[in-house]
Design a protein that fits this description.
The protein contains 9 helices and no strands. The chain is an all-alpha fold and about 190 residues long. The protein has one domain: TerB-like (Orthogonal Bundle).
Length: about 190
């Protein structure tokens, strides 16, 4: 069952913010929000140049972050139209409207096709190939856990997929628990 509008708004705000446990120079936005800028500048045609502002590596990171949340949302094999609309809405708002609903819907369609062809385990491996920095991997876990709350929280099967991501990322023990605690704390505010 999808979340109410108030929760969707809170999820979108938290998706746009960096995690509380972020280290290094202070970030004003999450990895999802930052990468959305490059993704949204994707040229329509075959011509891809740096002059467009499009960076294919950062765009691939955006796709991987969204895919991680999408995989978790599909853990129960029930991603209906209502959940898809809520997911799309939260991603668009979480990115500060840098990506359009049409872009997110097209990405979701591609991700559905890939998931159907490859299965969850292979898609988890593909996300892990794209997200190679540990600090990014930790944030991907947080984003995926936040998005799991669209359907009422992190269920047991969603937790299993998060654990698969955690394992594929090769993160230290406890990184997933830290991300889940961050999400619970952020949503309790």
């Amino acid at each position: 069952m999808p979340a109410n509008q108030s929760l969707l708004g809170k999820l979108a705000r938290k998706l746009g913010e960096p995690p509380a446990y972020a280290t290094g120079k202070p970030a004003r936005e999450s990895i999802l929000a930052l990468a959305s800028q490059a993704y949204s500048s994707r040229p329509d045609g075959d011509e891809v140049t740096q002059a467009t502002g499009f960076d294919p590596h950062i765009a691939a990171m955006f796709e991987a972050v969204v895919e991680s949340a999408f995989i978790v949302a599909n853990a129960d094999h029930d991603f209906d139209d209502t959940e898809r609309d809520a997911f799309k809405h939260v991603v668009v708002l979480g990115c500060g409207n840098r990506v359009t609903e049409a872009q997110v819907l097209a990405l979701l369609k591609d991700l559905e096709d890939l998931l159907r062809e490859d299965g969850i385990d292979k898609r988890v491996q593909m996300v892990a190939r794209t997200i190679t920095k540990p600090e990014y991997a930790r944030e991907v876990l947080r984003v995926a856990a936040l998005m799991a709350h669209i359907s009422g929280g992190v269920s047991a099967v969603e937790r299993e997929v998060l654990e698969k991501l955690h394992h594929q990322f090769g993160l230290e023990e406890g990184a997933l628990d830290t991300a889940l605690k961050e999400v619970e704390s952020a949503l309790a505010e």
